[in-house]
Write a structure and sequence with these properties.
about 350 residues; mainly beta; 1 helix; about 45% strand; elongated
Length: about 350
């Protein structure tokens, strides 16, 4: 976003020429006493001048600018999501002569737009819609939603809806809305990367997206858009495994959807379960089926290869009497098919 560009008009052709400001930037830092912003972080010939833009200590957990530079969304440890708005219009009004700086006097407003049921861990803003915001929760509680989404976070009456759907009840740490598809949301979670292609649906379906990425905690996901390619490029920060780059998170899943899946239905019951759980599969094409049970720490509890299964309804049973109480994941794999279902074991 370039607020400080200079526009010229050619007197002969009438064409408009825009000279980009090579040193313009907008940089925010959170301290114990609030959020501070500078426009000078890339200007190497002057000392950056910071302005406090929050009215009090913010206790910031995470924050992100909207692409137009007009809004800064931040979450705090009081379960609140805030929107700092008016940053773009305040650009030329920043008092660079010293003295006190009251953000409200320069059109900057700090508004609470959402209160969450659990501690928030990450916030992601759409590259194409400044009001498109996804927030994540970091709780192990299977009874709450771990993801919320808004399409109108810049409005006076911003609305957020749960898109947790069938996502297992593990902590989520960060999220992004795909630049080429606003219905695609990618999450950094306790068990790696998960994504959905139907975030606007009433029943959101999530898929594990760990191809090339270990099933380890992923604490941060950053999306970048480059003019030479369609879709976003994602940078993933893992726990103890280093930094990953993914060029095809948006492309790979869509290509797989065009293939004929070998399994067209899965049912896990009873759920919650105690001593035994049944898995019913609709086999649409002959395939080798594997069933894996994983606990919430990512450890494999069961690994069952059922062999080659022909077309029809197939039923499998797993003895869970020795399982400890808690949340588990049942992963079913076949040709062109992979599905993860959440399973709750009670005493």
């Amino acid at each position: 976003e370039n607020i400080h560009d200079t526009t010229f008009k050619d007197g002969v052709t009438g064409e408009t020429i825009v000279e980009r400001d090579k040193t313009y930037s907008q940089f925010a830092i959170a301290r114990y006493d609030g959020i501070f912003i500078t426009r000078d972080i890339l200007n190497l010939v002057k000392k950056p001048l910071f302005f406090k833009v929050t009215p009090a200590s913010a206790n910031v957990q995470a924050m992100e600018f909207s692409e137009d530079g007009n809004n800064l969304y931040y979450i705090n440890n009081r379960f609140e999501l805030h929107r700092l708005s008016g940053l773009k219009n305040a650009y030329r009004r920043f008092d660079t002569t010293g003295g006190s700086f009251l953000a409200a006097n320069y059109g900057i407003r700090d508004t609470i737009i959402f209160r969450s049921p659990a501690i928030m861990t990450g916030v992601g803003v759409s590259k194409t819609n400044p009001g498109g915001v996804v927030i994540t929760m970091g709780s192990y509680d299977p009874g709450i939603s771990h993801v919320y989404l808004s399409r109108n976070a810049t409005d006076t009456n911003a609305r957020f809806r749960s898109i947790g759907g069938d996502l297992p009840g593990f902590p989520c740490y960060d999220g992004e809305i795909a630049v080429d598809d606003s219905n695609r949301v990618i999450l950094a979670t306790e068990l790696g990367v998960w994504s959905t292609n139907n975030a606007s649906s009433a029943n959101v379906k999530w898929n594990e997206d760990n191809n090339g990425f270990q099933r380890v905690p992923c604490y941060m996901i950053v999306q970048r858009q480059y003019k030479y390619r369609q879709g976003g490029v994602y940078f993933l920060a893992s726990h103890g495994r280093g930094l990953f780059r993914a060029d095809n998170l948006s492309v790979g899943i869509k290509e797989a959807e065009n293939k004929t899946a070998s399994i067209d239905g899965i049912k896990v019951y009873p759920n919650p379960a105690k001593d035994v759980v049944n898995i019913q599969l609709g086999i649409a094409a002959t395939t080798n089926v594997s069933i894996q049970v994983v606990d919430i720490q990512g450890r494999t509890i069961e690994n069952i290869n059922t062999g080659n299964q022909s077309i029809g309804v197939r039923n499998f049973q797993i003895n869970t009497s020795t399982y400890t109480k808690g949340v588990y994941l049942i992963k079913v794999s076949g040709k062109n098919f992979e599905k993860v279902q959440k399973l709750l074991i009670t005493e």
